[in-house]
Specification:
Keywords: Membrane, Signal, Transmembrane
Strand content: over 45%
Number of domains: 2
Protein name: Ig-like domain-containing protein
Strand order of the largest sheet: 5-4-9-10-2-20-1-12-17-16-15
Distance between the termini: 40 Å
Main location: membrane
Order of helices and strands: EEEEEEEEEEEEEEEEEEEEE
Largest sheet: 11 strands, mixed
GO molecular function: transmembrane signaling receptor activity
Subcellular location: Membrane
Length: 275
């Protein structure tokens, strides 16, 4: 099985609703220079008619507005509100290193102003990113891995398998099917397939691979080592179904500590009560 150039997205979702003077406990976004990212921001029904915004700064109460729903575009940044789904999305294109900072989703309201998720965006050079993907996640958490593929593989079946080596590895699930808390969904129009791992247990640790089954071979797309640690994940209100677009070698989403030494530590916020 020949490895290909990686173009994937990893998401670990957790959220909190902080107060007006809250400090950021941000989800970390590691994105490539020149790439683009789309982020979903959820809100409650009572805020349906309020102006939604995306702002920059460590504190929500003093963050600087970047874009609002009463102005759909600001340079490389776009915003779109879907009041039916109670979600607005922010897209940032042609990312540059200076985009690195803390950001907030928010709703402007005279009666009930509200902050949503906070994010730390770190824009890096794709050429310097490690292709050895170590994922450390709290027990009970969920991970979504989105793999963008070339047009050549549009018609083929995609798979997710487990094993210390890729040949052989044990197939867990294939395209548009589900096995327990693991599922794979393919979107050929967007040329992306999405692997979702839910309710992760400590015994879920190990090596995993994503790939494409062609007529005469299996092509590996990416490899991962999953480590599941103790703790209880906060309830997630983020959308798993949002579409993300990138020309990245690797694009990684998560909550928790900054990656270091080529290791991606995605720790997630832990609820106050012990596991």
């Amino acid at each position: 099985m020949a490895p290909l150039t990686l173009s994937f997205l990893l998401i670990l979702l957790c959220t909190g609703i902080p107060g007006a003077d809250a400090e950021s406990t941000a989800n970390i976004i590691i994105a490539p220079k020149g790439g683009s990212v789309t982020i979903p921001c959820h809100y409650e029904d009572r805020n349906k008619t309020g102006v939604k915004y995306w702002c920059r700064g460590y504190y929500w109460g003093s963050c600087t507005s970047v874009i609002r729903t009463d102005s759909s575009q600001n340079g490389r940044v776009f915003i779109r509100d879907n009041a039916t789904q109670l979600v607005f999305t922010v897209t940032v294109r042609n990312l540059v290193v200076d985009d690195s900072d803390y950001y907030w989703c928010g709703v402007e309201s005279d009666v009930d102003p509200a902050a949503g998720e906070s994010f730390y965006l770190s824009v890096r050079d794709p050429a310097s990113e490690s292709t050895n993907n170590w994922i450390e996640v709290q027990e009970g958490g969920s991970v979504v891995i989105t793999d963008h593929y070339e047009d050549t593989y549009r018609a083929y079946s995609k798979f997710w398998c487990a094993g210390r080596t890729v040949d052989p590895c044990t197939t867990i699930v294939r395209t548009d099917s589900e096995e327990g808390d693991v599922s794979v969904r393919d979107d050929p129009n967007q040329q992306v397939f999405i692997v979702t791992l839910k309710n992760l247990k400590k015994e879920s640790f190990g090596y995993y691979w994503s790939g494409v089954n062609t007529y005469d071979s299996s092509v590996v797309r990416a490899s991962f080592y999953l480590q599941v640690t103790g703790g209880k994940m906060c309830r997630s209100d983020c959308a798993h179904e949002a579409r993300f677009h990138s020309n990245a070698i690797s694009l990684l989403y998560g909550c928790g500590a900054e990656p270091s030494d080529g290791v991606l530590h995605i720790l997630g916020s832990v609820c106050a009560e012990s596991a």
